[in-house]
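Sample intake sheet
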Amino acid sequence: LMAIAPPADAAPLAAAWHDLVRRQLVIFVSPNAVDGLFGARPAQSSWPAATLAASPGPGTGAALRNAGVPP
């Protein structure tokens, strides 16, 4: 069985937030992936306007919109 849990070290997720501005596209594979990244969002951080987000299905797309990522 698979368990979904927060990482033991949140530093890579914080670094990912600071690196988003350098990315053209970020692909999220599940709503859990969206929750994981946005759950580790540093204070005062927001999704960069020039960075696109992609999802494989409607559930992940809805999670991205709920997190504030524009369609």
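Comment: The two ends are 33 Å apart (CA to CA). Strands lie at 25-27, 52-54.
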